Amino acid sequence: MVRTNENIYSARFSRRIVALVDRITTRKRGEMLAMILDAIADDNGPIETALDIGSTKDSDMASSNFFARELAKKYMVTLLSDQYIDPEKDLNFEIDRAIIGDATRIGDDIGTFDLVIASATVEHVGNLANQARMVASCIRLANRYAVITTPNRWHPLEFHTHIPLLHWLPKPLHRRLLRAIGFSFFADEDNLNLLDRAALERMVADNPVRHLIEEWRISTVRLFGFVSNLVLIVKIRPPAPTRP
Q1: pLDDT tens readout for residues 195-241
Q2: What are phi and psi of 153, to 5 degrees?
Q3: How many angstroms separate the most distant Cα atoms in the chain?
Q4: Domains detected in the chain
C-alpha cells in the first residue's frame, strides 16, 4: 500500500511540475512574441506569410505551438515539422498548410516567407554543423525576417530535464551523467545540444548566407533573474532594385 500511495503522490507531483513549467513557458513565449512583433513592425510593408519550423502535433499544452497559433491570428502560416501533422485533427487553430521536412535541410521548393520563425528547435537538431545549417535555412527562406529562439545554456535550470546546474558541466560529462540517471533521450546530442549566446553569434557571423542579412541582434528574456532564452532576430536585406 505504501508503494502505491507513493506512486500516486509522485504522479500528482509530476503532473503539477509539468503544469507549472507549461505556465512559465507560455508566459515567457508571450514575452518573446511581443518582443518579436515589436521588432518586425517597421515601414517596409506588411507581413503576410510566416513559416513556423519545428511545429508539433501535440496541442495539449498552452505552450505547444504557441508561436504558430498566435501568428495564425495575423498571418498565413505554414508549418514545417519532422512529424506528420493533420491540420484538421491535430491542431486547434487554422493554418495554410503543413509540411514534413528536416529543419537542417529545407529545400527551396517550399518557397519563401515574409517571416520565418523557429522556436526552441535549434537545440534539437544535433551537432553544431546541423545547427548552423538550420540557421542558414531560416535566413535563406525569409523575405523580411528570420527569428530563432533557444534556451540559454547558462540558465541555472535546464528546461527539458528540469535538473539544475548539471548542464553547466562539460557536455561529454553532462551526457554521461544524464544516461546514468535515466535521461538517455536528452543525453543524445541529436536530441539536445544546448547553445549559449557566443555559439549563436558565431552561427550568424560565419554563415554562408551572411550576405542576405541587413542587420541582426540577439535579445534576451529572463527568468528568476537569469537569462533564460535567447532570441535571434535577423532582418533580411531587401533585393537590389532592377535597372529599367
Answers
A1: 999 999 999 999 999 999 999 999 999 999 999 999 999 999 988 76
A2: -60, -30
A3: 84
A4: 2-158+194-236 (3.40.50.150)
Q: Do 75 and 62 touch, CB atoms closer than 8 A?
A: no
Q: Which residue reads 535563406 in cell numbers?
A: 140
**How far, in Å, CA of 119 to CA of 67, rounded?**
7
- The closest of 231, 239, 172, 241 to 201, measured between CA atoms, is 231
Instruction: Write b or e for each residue in 39-77: b if 16 or more Cβ atoms lie within 10 A of its Cβ, otherwise e.
Output: ebeeeeeebebbbbbbbbbebebbbbbbbbbbbbeebbb
- Quote the pLDDT of residue 43: 63
How far apart CA 12 and CA 115 sit, in angstroms, is 40
**Chain Cα centroid distance, residue 168:** 21
The pLDDT tens digits for 19-33 are 888 899 999 999 999
Digit-coded pLDDT (tens) for 82-102: 999 999 999 999 999 999 999
Cell of 199: 555559439
SS3 83: coil
Predicted TM-score (pTM) of this structure: 0.90
CB 80 within 8 A of CB 16: no
Nearest alpha-carbon partner for 145 in 28, 64, 42, 32 = 42
